[in-house]
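quick one before i forget lol
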Amino acid sequence: MSTFLLRIVTPDGEKYKGEAEKLFFRASDGDVGIMANHADYIAAVDICHVRIITGAEELSAVCGGGFITFYSNTASLVCDTFVLKENINKEEVMSELEEAEKKLLEAKNPREKGILNSQIKRLKLYMEI
């Protein structure tokens, strides 16, 4: 099967670089799948579960939102956070989730509520993956 170059970058640096056969994620307008030689593409990416299919394996991760471009058979996913499934500590996540939900109940301003809702959405995805 044909492949394309996939690069995933966060403010902390490059999280993934390699050949992929397929990439699945949620854009702002719905679920998307990309394969080699896809049409040029750019989209906002929601906080979502990401699946990367390579010839030998399937990687699962959580993306904290961002954007993606696909051009010249290269996909570049730029996101706030990107955590592979094997790097998720569910006990730690559960503790953070409980704390964020408690803060949300006490939050007064809309900006703080929006930030906490995004954090809770990401943490729930960590628990589901």
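fyi The chain is about 30% helix and 50% strand.
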